[in-house]
Amino acid sequence: MPERTGSGGAEVRTHCPYCALQCGTLLAAGDAARDGGGDGRADGVRVRPDAVTVRPDPEFPVNQGGLCQKGWTAPALLTTPDRIRTPMVRDASGALVPTDWDTALDFVAASLARIRAEHGPDAVGVFGGGGLTNEKAYLLGKFARVTLGTSQIDYNGRFCMSSAAAAGNAAFGLDRGLPFPVTDLGSADTVLLAGANPAETMPPLMRHLSDARLIVIDPRRTPTAERAALHLQPRPGTDLALALGLLHILIVDGHTDRAYVDQRTTGFDAAWKRAASWWPERVEKVTGVPVSDQREAVRMLAAAERAYVLTGRGAEQHSKGTDTVAAFINLALALGLPGREGSGYGCLTGQGNGQGGREHGQKADQLPGYRMITDPAARAHVAGVWGVDPDTLPGPGRSAYELLDALGTDTGPKALLVFGANPVVSAPRADHVERRLAGLDLLVVADFVPSETARMADVVLPVTQWAEEEGTLTNLEGRVLRRRRLLSPPPGARSDLAVLRGLAVRLGDLPERYPAEPRAVFEELRRASRGGPADYSGISYERLDAGEALHWPCPSVDGPAEHPGTPRLFLERFAHPDGRARFADVEHRPPAEEAHAEHPLYATTGRVLAQYQSGAQTRRVPQLLAAAPEAHVEVHPDTAARAGLTDGGHARVTSARGSTLARVRLDPTLRTDTVFLPFHFPGAGRANLLTNDALDPRSRMPEFKVCAVRIAPAEPELPDPAPEHFEAVAAGVGSVDGREGGTVLQEARS
To answer: Which of 69, 118, 201, 658 is most buried by a 10 A CB count?
Structure first.
């Protein structure tokens, strides 16, 4: 049921705009909305009379008829009062003022042409997002490399799944978040969750984990840990030591699947040589996890007929995140789990299209189809689809944080285009990144709400959002999904595809190279991905609309029978040339920053149930803001007492990079050496004012999950200006003050 249209109303089958579960939803408007409920109860959410309601799609297996609080309230974002409805350009006084599309795009194109002429193509950077559809991600990468000729493109997914991607590619020869359907988890006996809190971050996933015995590794007693049969609570930054210790016990106690290891893997001896020195008592001393709990975890995994090891951001967002994930993969391989139906290893991908976003050209080192940009054959294939000389394609550029860190410097980009990201809140060392953005000659942001990054821009371009557009996304299990349009966008908003086309044509490129229709872009994506690791060439809108469940790789084939897709990877062989998985030779090392006398506590960051990512969207939904209205810091009562903090009071949390203001919440289950802050909030409440920009040497992941801090009582500060001020500006009344030294609207009109 792609779409049902009635007398004055329509209903479409689509997907939630938030996390990588991509829960199936039924969106209704007009009369169909009335028929579907919409009174704010469990059967629908009313946005305004007869507007839009959402219900879970009972036929979609991933969420099995469930939605979380964010999914139920998603339609509210469609009518947020400060929706951006007209382009804005910063004038001579430094204020953003409304203008028309031709003026805005002419100005951006002229500015980009000037900057490229003066400083070269790499003087322009592009920063994408893990929430962009496959079509947008693909065309954005093409625009950067063909029209702009720049190597300086990366995306915010680098901050989410990059460590697991690097470890998965090394171990299996292929990176797909879950190499099996989500529904397989429903038959598991035991599941180890390392650094994952799905009860808050993706609640419908818990429906598939309800029958399994859970082992949860997390410094906090999260809602997921509350449901666990066993909670291991390591010191932040020591997950790698714990994984090595679990492997040590597994091997010494004789639980290794030797037949599997001998027949399907290589590198076991080197991995065991590393783990041999991590005996349980040493692991307890480093991690704080009792020996008895370590042994119980191994017993639970070894006794299970069907077991899974799953990692999340808690294991991955470290300067050694790739090695940490690799150590958990080693554990899974020693148990014989990957490539066996009913068991396995997987990464719980976070962003809505974090999987597809990293497959089709947004990453600094990749081309569509998950091809490496340094591979001559890959360059030749993609260049042939694009109709350009392979030698004209740039090489690999800077990773996400390195790109942001270089902005405005002598050797870095002078201009940045941002699509679907909010690095002012989401990037580590956020105040430094904000200063880098302020130093640009040109900052262009395409968004539908005035994010903190958009407020800094020289040009703001209003784009469509989820219920107003067509396209595809790829969820955490590699399933390609159709996003379907219910509503027409408000006057003044354009799709990201139309924006890229408008800029490309103004910069002298061929209009036929940049179709603005998602279906046409996807057809080209199919050709570009053909033969690559992430092969979409056998997937089509027609097959998806017919209800087929298609997981990549899904190559095109000759003959009457089409490829059915690959829901389960590695059942016969892994993706390395010899068909074997690789154990990793990894060793524990401390975090980049240890606690010390001046900063005696560890801070770790994460998400809460009612907010999502940088909060630019969810903070505009009244129900979600009421549930989680402000930045807070969780502190053990003993730690709070020593620091003079009171429950409900305010605290100043300070690291070597900056400080943040948050309301105190006492939590007796927290480690006494650890504080926790959610990262969804802006201004003085940004958790990423504290976080460390130390990078993993392979994935280039920043160390979000651990930094040294001190904490003290503080007086509350005034809140940031109300975002509703943007509503009047978007309607053509007034202006928004922003950073100094902005561009000049008069120049755009001349």
So the answer is: 201
Single pTM value for the model = 0.94
The CA distances from residue 700 to 318, 363, 372, 477, in Å, are 9, 11, 16, 24
| Cα dist from 180 to 176, 177, 337, 571, whole Å | 9, 9, 12, 10
How many other β-carbons are positioned within 10 Å of the β-carbon of residue 746? 10
CA distances from 557 to 338, 481, 519, 520, 720 (A): 27, 21, 20, 20, 56
**Residue 693 CB neighbours (<10 A):** 22
d(CA 678, CA 527): 41
User: Per residue in 164-194, pLDDT tens?
Assistant: 999 999 999 999 999 999 999 999 999 999 9
Q: Any residues with CB less than 8 A from the CB of 138 and at least 6 apart, and which?
A: 360, 361, 368, 521, 524, 525, 528
Q: Return the pLDDT at 560.
A: 82
Query: pLDDT tens digits, residue range 499-541?
Result: 999 999 999 999 999 999 999 999 999 999 999 999 999 999 9
pLDDT of residue 719: 58
Is the confidence at residue 48, as pLDDT, over 60? no
How far apart are the C-alpha atoms of 90 and 97, rounded to whole Å? 6
Tokens (6 digits) for 596: 């010390």
Q: Which two tokens stand for residue 192?
A: 């180890």
Q: Bridge-partner residues for 196, per DSSP?
A: none
Residue for token pair 């030779």: 585
> Which is it for the CA torsion 605, 610, 612, 618, positive or negative?
negative
Amino acid at 479: R
Segment 332-343 mean pLDDT? 98
Q: Which whole number is the average pLDDT over 386-401?
A: 98
